[in-house]
Structure prediction request, 286 residues.
Amino acid sequence: MRKIESIKSIREYLSVARKADSLIGFVPTMGAIHAGHRSLMRAARADCAEVVVSIFVNPTQFGPSEDFAQYPRPIKADLAACAEEKVDAVFCPSVEEMYACGSATTVQVSGLTEGLCGGHRPGHFDGVTTVVAKLFNIVQPDIAYFGQKDAQQATVIRRMVHDLLWPLKIVVCPTVREPDGLAMSSRNAYLTPHERRQALCLHQSLSEAQAAIEAGHRDTGKLIEHMRERIVSAGPCAIDYIAIVDPDDLTDLRMVEKRCLIALAVRIGSTRLIDNILVDANSSAG
Prediction:
């Protein structure tokens, strides 16, 4: 496995694979590699002859009061994890390398980015789409892999790729969870033991909403209210949002009639956690 830090070097490295007509799989990350990231690497490894992972904590997707400076950066452990998953190359650029010319150009996907997390993190998705566009241009992968836990991000990226006519397939892999149901996240490390136990209410509330829909309940207002009560009863928190939306365009639903995305963002202590679940009202299997 090669660690590569410059844009010039990663392009030169991948030119060999491209000339050999090898399928290139790409997993963009901000590091702090966990089982969720590993699942994306394994999917890429199964599909592609060449697997590239990027590790870059992108400053433009963090707000002024968010945790950019504190975000975990265990690079040695991350590289070891990538090697264990048989990644071919890890692209680890500096901020100066990625934003050498400043940031006068922004890639913006309108419509999909105003609600859910976008309503609580102004500018966040502009930072995400801009850096992912840069990474796609640098790596030029055939397939890129994202996690369902970041459902809004995956939807936004898929739309960006569609609108900009990139010859690129986006694969969204299932959320990986701890044995007790907590969604894997680099930010879980911020939780105290007590907060970690309290955080289980997120997945529990999603599961209860899924069960209610499968039992025939369709009114999203009532479903959301039950989820809110479930989360608040678990302990002190601040709920950014609980929403039931169309999984394709992320618009709010009044009634659940087919597939829906149930998504939430909750702050427990100083940690902001997100989770979601896809539910099909017409399927007893959910």
In short: The CA atoms of residues 146 and 172 lie 5 Å apart. The first helix runs from residue 7 to 19. Residues 190-280 form a domain with the Pantoate--beta-alanine Ligase; Chain: A,domain 2 fold (CATH 3.30.1300.10).
